[in-house]
Structure formats: structure tokens, C-alpha cells
Amino acid sequence: MLIEIRHRTSYRYGGPARYSIQSLRLTPPSFEAQKVLSWTVTAPGMETGLRFSDCFGNAVVLAAVSGEHDGIEIEARGVIETFDSTGVARGLPEPSPLHMFIRHTSITKPSPELIDLSRSCQKRNALETLHEMMRAVSEAIRYEIGTTHEHTTAAEALKSGQGVCQDHAHVLITAARIAGIPARYVNGYFLSGTLAPSEAHHAWAEAWVPGLGWTGFDPANRMCPTERYVRLACGLDAASAAPIRGTQRGGENEALDVEVEVQQQSAQQ
Fold it and tell me: Whole-model pTM above 0.70?
């Protein structure tokens, strides 16, 4: 499948900023489940930005802007060819050891409710356990936009019983780690093709399954990733996998606007 993506992020400041720097994880990788046919990222400071791969294998650009400015516009766009790999993510760089992904973060810290959920889902093997966790998380957290925020923890989302794809992913990751299964957060894009609630910029979990490797689980859609998914970056949680993280001097009262367009492209184009 050919998927065309346009992801625009605009920051506007109430007053001029004197300096800003953005950490951009906006370049999708090519691996067994997807091939990048074309991709460009435009942002102030990109030409002289520092480029490197982080400890999770994500391509990162540090783009800085000096001098007064009242806002920043960042756009990523391109075409990705995707393939259905039954959720298995083979062919990605893996610079970090598996035990790193059992470590909890402030967002994925276990609570009594999370421990109970994890224990209730444990089956004969990791694959069966993870499928049961995906089902349980989907049932425990109703998809509801605007009920959580970027700092909502897995424990808070499970207790409230509502949230979005980020919350589904955090709860599944936490449950898997409690069970001793390495798990990580993945962000990317999703082509829904339906009228059901969804977010074009999407998030899901990946867990390590013996004999398969890293395998995706998406409780928000209650399925493993298919050719409708485009993988962007991964991390221990949403904060470490964020497409854009930045800071500035000055520029108070920041206003953020994000537009994401994901559509299928015909092979003739």
C-alpha cells in the first residue's frame, strides 16, 4: 500500500523568542514492513542541524534558531510503501539491550490496578499473554478524545477508564513489563479507512516475543499493526519517542497547532 503523509506543526509565541531548539524525530525508517519512497522535513535550522541516531535507533535532528522570532513551522511529508508483516517489526536497528525495555518510567510506573490487570492476563506464553493484554486494555479504557493529556500516566488512565491511543499504549507497556516482557512505545501514523474515531497521528506498543522479535499491539484498534500503519519512532514511553520536543528562551504564551493528513495514494500517481 502507498500512504501519503503530511504532518505540519506550528508554534506561535505571545512575545518574541530569542533562541529555540527542537529535537525532531520525524524521519520514518525503512524496514521489512515499510519502505520510504520519498520524505522531506522542513524546519528552521535544519540545514545546520546536528544529525544522529539515539539509543533506540531513531533518526534525530537537533535544529536551532538564533535571533528573535515569533514562531516556528515544521513540516514532514512524503510517501511510504507499506506491507502487512502481521505486526512483526523486523529489520530495524536495535542498539539497546532488551533489559532496557523492562524498566519502568514515571509514566509507566505500576499501580495495584495495573499489577492486577497484568496478572489476570498472563497465559501459557508471551504471545498469548500480549493478545489478552491488548483485549483487556481495549475494554478497560474507553477511547475518548480530550479526557487525558500528554503527562497522563498509565495508572491514571486505567483508573479513569478513558483516554486515547497514547494511554492505551502506556497501559499495555506497563502490564507487559510487570510480566517481565520487554515493551516499548511506538508513534507513527494510521490510515483508518473507516468512520470510527481515530487519530491520524497514532501510537501503539511493541513487545518482544520469543521466536518473533518485536511485535506490535494496538489496543486502541484492537489489532496488530497492518499495512495501514506507518512507524515513525520508538522509546520507553511517549516522552522519549516524541516526534518533536523543544525549548526556547523568551516566547511566552506558546500556542500549538498540529495538522496531520494521511491518505492512500494510487499506484498510478
Answer: yes
